[in-house]
C-alpha cells in the first residue's frame, strides 16, 4: 500500500526513488543504535523509508515521522465451537417458563385421567379396575414420546382427554424437533474475549511478522502473557507460523491464529467454502500503533511529505488504496449454511446416553429390591394352613 502512496508522492514532488531492500524495520539493539530501516535512517544512509513503520517512542528518539497513513490490523481468528460442546442443546429449544408450563400441563393430564377413571367407576358402579397413577403416568409419557396407548379405555370422557393430550403433545413435539435441528447447525458465541480464549481448550499460534514476537515479549497484559505461556509455548516451533498454515489449522481444528486481517481475509475468501465462513470470529489482541513514513531526524522532507500525504487523503486517493488492497471480511451466506448436511456426533446425544444409563441403573436397583422383598416375604410370611380331608366324587359314564 505504501508503494502506491510513494508513487503518487513521486509524481506530486517530481522526484525519482532509488529503492533498497532491508531485512527488518529496525529494533533497538540495546546500545542506542538500531538495526534495519530505522538504523539506516539513524545513520542517514537513506532519506526516507519507503514502507510505513510503527510510530514507537524508542524510534522517535532517532528518527522523525511524517503523518499516520494506514493501520496494520491484526486479530485472533478462530471458529466458534459448536453449541452442543458448550451447552446442553436438549434443554435449549424451550425457555424455562415453557418447560414449567409443559410440566404442569402433563401433570394436570395425569391427575385428570386418574380422576375421570375413579369417578366413572363410582357412578357406573362397575367392577372394572380403575387406572392407577402409574398407569396414567405411562399414558402421558407415551404421548410425550409420540408412542401409542395399549390400555382399553371404555369411557368417552377418558378417551376425549387422551385425544386432547396427544394433540397437545404433537404441537410441542413439532416445535421441539424443529428447534433441535436448527440448534445442531448453530455455532455458539461462547468465546468473545481474550479471557474466554485463554480458558478454552483451543490451541493457539501466531503469524510470523516483524512485530509478533516483540509485542508478546513487551506486553504487560496478564491475559496476553498467560495466552503466550499456556497455549503458544506448548506449540514449540509451530507457535509462529505462516498465514496459510495457520488458516488451514483453523479450518480443520479447534485452533486460534493471530494473523494480519489482510492476509487472512484473502486466504479465507479464496480457499474456504461458503458454509465454512459461518461461525468464523475474531478478537483483537494488540492495539498496534499507526503506520507512518519515517524520515531522517530533522529532515526537510518531513513537512513537505506531510502536506502531500494529507492532500492525498483529502481527495480520496488514500481510501482508494485501502479499498484496493484490503479485502472485506468474509460474509456467511445463510442460504448455503441451510443446505449444509450436519452429522450428529456423540456430543449431541450424550445427554440421552446419560438418561439411558441412569434409567438402566435404576431399573436394575429396583429389580434387586423386588427380588429381595419377594424372597423375604416368601421366607418369613409363609402361613401354615391346616390340612382337611376333601371327598371328591367323579361320575363316570361308560
From TrEMBL:
| GO aspect biological process, one term | detection of stimulus involved in sensory perception
Q: Name one Pfam family in it.
A: Lig_chan
Which gene carries the instructions for this protein? grid2_0
* SUPFAM superfamilies membership: Periplasmic binding protein-like II
Q: Which GO terms describe its cellular component?
A: plasma membrane
Q: Where in the cell is it found?
A: Cell membrane
Q: Where are the transmembrane segments?
A: 98-116, 160-184, 349-369
Q: Which GO terms describe its molecular function?
A: ligand-gated monoatomic ion channel activity
Q: Please name the InterPro entries in this protein's record.
A: Insect_Ionotropic_Sensory_Rcpt (IPR052192), Iontro_rcpt_C (IPR001320)
This chain belongs to the protein called Glutamate receptor delta-2 subunit
Q: Which UniProt keywords apply?
A: Cell membrane, Glycoprotein, Membrane, Receptor, Transmembrane, Transmembrane helix
Q: Which domain of life is it from?
A: Eukaryota
User: Its membrane topology, per UniProt?
Assistant: Multi-pass membrane protein
Which family is this sequence assigned to? Answer: Belongs to the glutamate-gated ion channel (TC 1.A.10.1) family.
| Ionotropic glutamate receptor C-terminal domain boundaries | 96-359
Amino acid at each position: 500500500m505504501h508503494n502506491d502512496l510513494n508513487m503518487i508522492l513521486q509524481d506530486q514532488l517530481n522526484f525519482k526513488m532509488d529503492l533498497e531492500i532491508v531485512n527488518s524495520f529496525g529494533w533497538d539493539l540495546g546500545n542506542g543504535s538500531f538495526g534495519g530501516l530505522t538504523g539506516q535512517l539513524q545513520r542517514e544512509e537513506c532519506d526516507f523509508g519507503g514502507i510505513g513503520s510503527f510510530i514507537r517512542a524508542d524510534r522517535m528518539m532517532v528518527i522523525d515521522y511524517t503523518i499516520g497513513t494506514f493501520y496494520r490490523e491484526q486479530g485472533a481468528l478462530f471458529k466458534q465451537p459448536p453449541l452442543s460442546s458448550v451447552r446442553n442443546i436438549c434443554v435449549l429449544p424451550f425457555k424455562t417458563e415453557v418447560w414449567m408450563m409443559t410440566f404442569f400441563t402433563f401433570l394436570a393430564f395425569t391427575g385428570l385421567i386418574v380422576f375421570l377413571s375413579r369417578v366413572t367407576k363410582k357412578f357406573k358402579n362397575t367392577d372394572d379396575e380403575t387406572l392407577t397413577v402409574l398407569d396414567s403416568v405411562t399414558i402421558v409419557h407415551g404421548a410425550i414420546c409420540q408412542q401409542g396407548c395399549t390400555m382399553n379405555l371404555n369411557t368417552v370422557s377418558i378417551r376425549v382427554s387422551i385425544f386432547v393430550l396427544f394433540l397437545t403433545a404433537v404441537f410441542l413435539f413439532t416445535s421441539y424437533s424443529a428447534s433441535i435441528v436448527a440448534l445442531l447447525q448453530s455455532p455458539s458465541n461462547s468465546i468473545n474475549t481474550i479471557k474466554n480464549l485463554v480458558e478454552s481448550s483451543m490451541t493457539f499460534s501466531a503469524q510470523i511478522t516483524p512485530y509478533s514476537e516483540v509485542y508478546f515479549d513487551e506486553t504487560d497484559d496478564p491475559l496476553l502473557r498467560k495466552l503466550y505461556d499456556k497455549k503458544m509455548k506448548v506449540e514449540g516451533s509451530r507457535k509462529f507460523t505462516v498465514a496459510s498454515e495457520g488458516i488451514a489449522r483453523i479450518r480443520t481444528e479447534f485452533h486460534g491464529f493471530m494473523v494480519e486481517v489482510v492476509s487472512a481475509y484473502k486466504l479465507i475468501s479464496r480457499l474456504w467454502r461458503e458454509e465454512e465462513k459461518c461461525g468464523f470470529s475474531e478478537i483483537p489482541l494488540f492495539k498496534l500503533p499507526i503506520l507512518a513514513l519515517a524520515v531522517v531526524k530533522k529532515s526537510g522532507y518531513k513537512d513537505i511529505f506531510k502536506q502531500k500525504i494529507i492532500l492525498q487523503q483529502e481527495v480520496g486517493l488514500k481510501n482508494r488504496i485501502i479499498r484496493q488492497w484490503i479485502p472485506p471480511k468474509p460474509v456467511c451466506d445463510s442460504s448455503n449454511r441451510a443446505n449444509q448436511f450436519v452429522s450428529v456426533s456423540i456430543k449431541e446425544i450424550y445427554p440421552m446416553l446419560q438418561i439411558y444409563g441412569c434409567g438402566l441403573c435404576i431399573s436394575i436397583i429396583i429389580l434387586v429390591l423386588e427380588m429381595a422383598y419377594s424372597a423375604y416375604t416368601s421366607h418369613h410370611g409363609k402361613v401354615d394352613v391346616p390340612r382337611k380331608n376333601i371327598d371328591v366324587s367323579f361320575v363316570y359314564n361308560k
